[in-house]
Amino acid sequence: MLLSARIKDFVEEFISKDYLPGCSIMINQSNELVYINSFGRRNIKDNLEVNINTIFPIGCITKIVTSMLILALCKKNRINIDKPLRNLFPNNPMFEADMFSYVTIKDIIAHRTGIVDNNLLLYINKNETKNDIISRICNEFTIESFRNKYSYCSTTYVILGELVKLITNRSYEEYVTNTIFKPMNMIKTSFFDYDKFLELTYDNFATPYVKNKHELEEGEIIDTKNYNSSMGIITTIDDLSRLFKELIMRYSKTKYLSEIIKPLGITDSKLIYPEIVYDFYGLGFNISCYKNNQFIYHDGNYPGYSSQITYFPKNKISIAVLTNISNSLFPKILTFYIFDILCNLSETKWKHRLELVDNIINKNNLMDINVNENKNNNLNILRFVGRYYNDACGYIEITNKNFTLYVNIDDKKFMLTHIKGNEFYTNFKYLNTFLLLTFMESNELDKVILRIKIHNEERELLFIKE
């Protein structure tokens, strides 16, 4: 069976089982485009199909563009990526904090700062400016955690975006558009505009979806304008094929490739497949090995979307997969399936593997809790009603309707379900998981403190009731 037919059968089987609504795929071999196609629907309700010009957010794949851009700028301007930023820019107020006496450009690109993302801030924080974000990063920095281990952090890439502005005197968005998007004729590629999305003025934009048990539901999308250098690019598989080809041509024949694939830290990725024996992080890429074939890659998980781009240097094969489903391993599985075919490798039962792992992920996204069935009859929930404040996030509000609590975050309202005591949870569609909320009464402050955290994550936010 031909490659195109095998890919079609593989993808359409999973679409028919509601594993994903739609996807776009690109394969480049020896720097020539050998396959590009799309399947499924970009919008289920309106029965709109995906095509090669459908726009997808690619999330953290944006980091590849940012890191390559920074490396090129540093080489051109003779900026040492191994020197602390304060040493490079001694009189710049952006780098006054103690953190910049230690942290280098390479540390940020390779996620070695020791700072860990608080993912909740990406979803409920509307008040922070880029300067606020950088200040918060500096406050979270500790010398004990610095270079101690790999700590993936989208937030620190905001610094790289501002660094582009500092070096070029143009905004990160303007510089990327004029030096990458336009010269490569990537006419449908830009940075996500939240207002434009809400106004439905994007043409051919994939609708975000999440998997709720065994059904697909429309997901929520977030405003990431302050994080454009980390996760802001939206593109089509057709435009992405041009970018991929240019990156390979530019870097595969230079020392950049050897620098990129030099491991700088062991990632915290779980090696759930026996064919993958390691996973490191280099300069903007993950470095891994599949069936004795080294490859570099980056995935892009964005609310409602999952993507991955992969390059096998020895085989000169690059593969990109874009989907409109949250937190899915489908792009990774499909990449390995395609690579097996192209290289005539022993067949792995990837369909069965994906089903097993998908069931595990769904179980992990469900909380093993005993929900209170007493409808809060014995709990005075009215004392929790009111406005709560956090310096980084501003205000959220807890309201009551018919003795049921709701948390209001900006223009969104989430119903709270009582677990026990002062603990509640709510479904959080952005991440296809749950928020855990605990009301804590402080006698010392004579205040109610609200603790919010994402299920299965350690970081939390504290809000104080006014």
Automatic annotation (TrEMBL):
Domain of life where this protein originates: Bacteria
Domain Beta-lactamase-related: 9-328
Pfam family, one: Beta-lactamase
InterPro entries: AmpC-like, Beta-lactam-related, Beta-lactam/transpept-like
Protein name in UniProt: CubicO group peptidase, beta-lactamase class C family
Coiled-coil segments: none
